[in-house]
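Recap from last week: sequence in, structure out.
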Amino acid sequence: MTVDTAAAPARPADRASDGPAPGRDAFTYETRRLIADPAPLAVKGWTIKPYRIALDDPGEVEAVRAADMPALLDALLDAPADPDFHGPGFAVLHRARDGSYLLAGTWYQGHNLASVTRRVVETDAAPGFRLEAMPHGLLACIWEMAVYIHETQAWTRAVMASGKGPAGFDDYYACTTGGVI
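Predicted structure tokens:
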């Protein structure tokens, strides 16, 4: 099941359509396009639902779609070492104005979420990128949080409130979101 998010609030008429310039007002809202990949990815013992976020512009959407999500996740994630990590999770690749970011959330002990966030920096050396830790314990921006909100609700409905527990994992994987955020 795909759930389309509600339309974003209208941008004030005095804002440029291509967004604010460097040094912009940090409180400016710009719409983004959220794309769910068609199927979960198996990475190092995890089953990850991949999402991609880009400015609502065809060139930016194509650029984020072209990114090698399996390679990025392979670099980001370690195999689950604790059996209380059940295997399911989700990831967000966000191509933003100030760079690209990769986030992954993995479910732990049935009702907890572990999360990691890294900046993706393109390089000339293989594999073509490196991942850098975020300063100040930053977790996610408001556009990325839309995915966290959806995933929390999907997990709660499919796995916890349904009473299915691990038998609800397939229902969880089937519930994705996308659209304009």
